Amino acid sequence: MSETKRWGIAAAGFLMQMALGAVYAWSVFRIPLSKQLHWTNSQVTLTFTICIFMVGFSSFFGGLWLNRKGPRVVALTAGLLYGLGVFLACFSANRLWWLYLSYGVIGGVGLGLGYIVPVAVLVKWFPDRRGMITGIAVAGFGGGALVTAPAAAALIQSVGVLRTFAVLGIAYLVVVMGMGSFMQSPPPGWKPAGWAPSAQQAAQRVERDYSFSAALKTWQWWALWLMLFLNASAGISLISQEAPMFGQIARVSAAAAAGMVGLVSIGNAVGRIFWAWISDAITRRWTFAVMFLAQFGLFWILPGLNSAGILTAVSFVILMCYGGGFGTMPAFAADYFGVKNIGPIYGLMTTAWSFASLFGPMLMARMTESTGSYARSLHLIAVVMALSLVMPILVRPPRAKA
Q: Is residue 202 part of a domain?
């Protein structure tokens, strides 16, 4: 019965994250908003930046609240705020500040509260498959744009960009609140019958549960934060500009670019499961090293590609690495600090995602506006990825008493 229950909760968590991950389809709205309301690339991109910035901080508070009141309350609140924020964005005509407040702030808070729930819940239900399940827990988030990008593009063509926000907001509210109602944690200390950690699993994990304050006193927490920040900065820069970038580099139509966004988003979802699964075999640290190395090469060659197929394939792998960071890091944090307080410990770690949303997308938008090309910003990201290799090589589990 427990086996069926935990996989049922995993399925609900996946669908909940898929609705939340629709935020990754934001680039589909960029050109229609700019054309209809005469806002610049940077002004529209800032909406996405604000939204993701709010996610990290609200994930932290969601983790604290989850420990006190349970995951279901947090999940239902998340669905209400996220759906409401997107819906209210339909009233943004000639009011840029309202778009920032509704989609950016209210929607972003709902996103963060919802994001941490399946992660914190499922890592406790699956001590035997920690890497794989954290990948599944956030794979839906990475794949949200697969459904949303083409659906949103079609809605924009038929009802307009502002009414599209209203339709999607209602859909998000129903799905997130519906799936969130299934979220619950197992009894303290629960584990599958007859299971014990292997020698390799034991070697990657600490023997105690760190408190939130104790975790923050270790250099390892800050090292993991920096690794997540660097990986997220690269991928989120690409995500924020996918549709117009594909149009410029491969010279495809807006509809074709939206389709490419949907295909590439599969990489975001697949990477969260694939790299998390790989990390159970080669360790979390070496998984990050491989992802940083791969992104260095791919970002460097990206601006020279003019084939839509090759451009989609390369972007797909980059988004696999981006998603892999989010799929692997919850297990990384649980290995180093235990699962008891993983909600606030990993919740605060997601502020790395928040700051990445400030650094990456805005830097790319401004560099593109000033140069008229994506080449310089993409090469800069490649160099950052090369330098990032030092972090996973150095990091080790905390062993001293905290």
A: no
